[in-house]
């Protein structure tokens, strides 16, 4: 009886979550298909595919923006993993002088206002010649995304001591085998969590992409912002739906890959 009530409670919470989640999405969907929705109308008088026809037209640049957004987010994620794996290992499992200061510097992008950070990066990139380029935007995206990956990996490293690796070393396992069979399976959830946050934060960057890219690097936020800040609300709503779908797709992909990995691992061990 208790288990049944618990299941009913979880189902109720899931339904409530879906209802709350759908509230901001439903007006976006209606607006994207409307020919004009004005106050105090409850529903639009007319519906039209005008916004979606524009979004997927050849001259809108939507596919280029989606491709650039995904490419930048994935590249930044891989770079963050390579940077944070050794850094999180040292910070989580070693004690040394200046550790708190180093952590504060690495977490600084979460505290310092983004505009200040972007202006400093912009001036430096002008000197280095990285402005108005894809590689410059990708490097700039590391600043606001790296703290999320670092924190997720630090938490994962803190849950595993050095004893397992020491025992594997005594049994003859080399560095690569210890990394593959002991360390990576344990910190994989942290990698997935950090990657999900990195992708979401990178996809949503407007100010950094606008200043560093100079309008030459087009992503979804770049083409979305003008429409939702005084432009065509219908087209802006369509872009918002695409952006939300892209974010949800990235989270679903990460979750699916993690489940398949552990399922394959359990089958292999069994």
TrEMBL record:
PROSITE patterns: ABC_TM1 (PS50928). Pfam families: BPD_transp_1 (PF00528). Residues 66-252 form the ABC transmembrane type-1 domain. One of its GO terms (biological process) is transmembrane transport. Keywords: Cell inner membrane, Cell membrane, Membrane, Transmembrane, Transmembrane helix, Transport. Gene3D superfamilies: MetI-like (1.10.3720.10). The keyword Magnesium does not apply. It is found in: Cell inner membrane; Cell membrane. CDD domains: TM_PBP2 (cd06261). It comes from the Bacteria. InterPro entries: MetI-like (IPR000515), MetI-like_sf (IPR035906). It is a multi-pass membrane protein. One of its GO terms (cellular component) is plasma membrane. The chain crosses the membrane at residues 12-37, 70-92, 104-128, 181-201, 207-228, 235-254. The keyword GTP-binding does not apply. Belongs to the binding-protein-dependent transport system permease family. This is ABC transporter permease subunit.
């Amino acid at each position: 009886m208790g288990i049944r009530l618990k299941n009913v409670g979880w189902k109720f919470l899931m339904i409530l979550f879906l209802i709350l989640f759908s509230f901001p999405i439903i007006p976006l969907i209606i607006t994207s298909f409307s020919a004009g929705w004005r106050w105090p109308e409850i529903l639009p008088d007319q519906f039209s595919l005008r916004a979606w026809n524009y979004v997927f037209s050849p001259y809108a640049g939507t596919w280029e923006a989606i491709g650039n957004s995904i490419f930048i987010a994935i590249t930044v994620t891989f770079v963050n993993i390579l940077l944070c794996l050794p850094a999180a290992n040292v910070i989580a499992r070693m004690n040394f002088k200046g550790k708190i200061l180093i952590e504060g510097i690495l977490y600084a992008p979460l505290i310092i206002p983004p505009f200040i950070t972007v202006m400093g990066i912009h001036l430096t990139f002008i000197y280095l010649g990285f402005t108005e380029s894809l590689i410059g935007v990708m490097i700039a995206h590391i600043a606001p995304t790296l703290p999320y990956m670092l924190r997720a990996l630090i938490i994962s490293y803190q849950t595993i001591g050095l004893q397992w690796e020491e025992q594997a070393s005594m049994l003859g396992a080399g560095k690569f085998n210890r990394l593959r069979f002991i360390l990576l399976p344990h910190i994989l959830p942290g990698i997935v969590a950090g990657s999900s946050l990195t992708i979401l934060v990178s996809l949503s960057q407007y100010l950094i992409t606008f200043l560093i890219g100079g309008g030459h690097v087009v992503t979804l936020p770049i083409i979305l912002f003008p429409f939702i800040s005084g432009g065509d609300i219908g087209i802006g709503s369509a872009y918002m739906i695409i952006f939300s779908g892209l974010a949800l797709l990235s989270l679903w992909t990460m979750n699916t890959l993690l489940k398949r990995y552990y399922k394959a691992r359990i089958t292999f061990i069994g």
